[in-house]
Write a structure and sequence with these properties.
Structural class: mainly alpha
Helix content: over 70%
CATH architecture: Orthogonal Bundle
Order of helices and strands: HHHHHEEHHHHHHH
Distance between the termini: 39 Å
Number of helices: 12
Largest sheet: 2 strands, antiparallel
């Protein structure tokens, strides 16, 4: 069962999972917002890539960064019109997690139903890079290989951004302690806006990547949201590195687990990991007790 073929498949799945979790965990770690509509942003990114390819004949690989920018613009709008008031009002900030859960839940329902009305509920897909590529003893379809490369490069780029740039260090400072960060001159409001744009942008890019190899439909987002939350619990709340490692780890567990027990047990494996981590190590494998709040 331990084969290079399964390892390649696990990395392809895990890299996309990591990309989903990074955006989700970034928003939660910075502002304590429970974005249960994150998967729906993935869905919108997938549809944007699908229609740009089908109607405008734009190469999906070229469309990926532009879809990310479009999703980042949606993130900026969501921050200004939905959450800026919550984040600057003291009494509402104390209830930010509960408030954000309700707002994002309503947003999720609205997005799904509007997408269903606009695009119909039928699964849709396009053919792109569908030739099989040999890598040593393993085989992988070209679109899955492209998804793997894009997702891994994006995750590495995000890590470098947070470690090497001033803006990235500001976001990390806010995650660790908002009060201490503001004392040394970090603007929380500007950092929140940046975080929204990056988190939403990564979700849109994930959708573009997913559309390369998977069917898309208006209600596909829920499963990606669940996967994202499982990974941030696995890697630690607010821990970006933990999100990437957790995504890769879940991809390995899912791929090898499905190969061992069958595809019908996929959901059991994912929820089983979630429950086990909650019981055994609530702060996550890479989190600390002060991180889990």
């Amino acid at each position: 069962m331990l084969s290079f073929q399964l390892l390649i498949a696990a990395l392809a799945t895990g890299s996309v999972y990591a990309l989903i979790a990074v955006g989700l965990n970034l928003i939660y770690g910075t502002m304590r917002l429970l974005n249960v509509a994150h998967g729906d942003l993935v869905m919108l990114g997938a549809y944007a890539t699908y229609w740009s390819f089908s109607l405008l004949h734009v190469d999906p690989l070229i469309a990926v960064p532009f879809v990310g920018l479009l999703a980042a613009g949606i993130g900026a709008a969501a921050y200004f019109f939905l959450f800026q008031h919550f984040l600057r009002t003291g009494s509402l900030t104390d209830r930010i997690e509960a408030n954000s859960l309700l707002v994002f839940f309503g947003l999720s329902i609205a997005i799904e139903n509007l997408a269903s009305l606009a695009f119909s509920g039928n699964p849709q897909a396009y053919e792109y890079l569908d030739r099989v590529i040999r890598i040593g003893s393993a085989s992988i379809v070209g679109n899955r290989l492209a998804a793997l490369i894009i997702a891994l490069c994006t995750c590495i780029g995000v890590l470098l951004f947070f470690r090497l740039t001033t803006l990235g260090l500001a976001v990390r400072a806010i995650i660790q302690s908002r009060d201490a960060a503001e004392i040394v001159g970090v603007s929380a409001r500007k950092t929140y806006l940046l975080t929204f744009c990056i988190g939403f942008g990564l979700a849109g890019m994930t959708g573009a990547v997913v559309s390369l190899y998977s069917q898309i439909w208006p209600f596909m987002g829920f499963s990606y949201t669940i996967v994202g939350f499982v990974i941030i619990i696995l890697g630690g709340l607010g821990n970006i590195v933990g999100s990437i490692v957790g995504g890769l780890l879940l991809g390995v567990l899912e791929t090898f687990g499905v190969a061992a027990v069958g595809a019908n047990y996929r959901s059991i494996l994912i929820y089983g990991v979630f429950i086990a981590i909650i019981i055994i190590r609530p702060q996550g494998l890479f989190g600390t007790k002060s991180t889990a709040r």
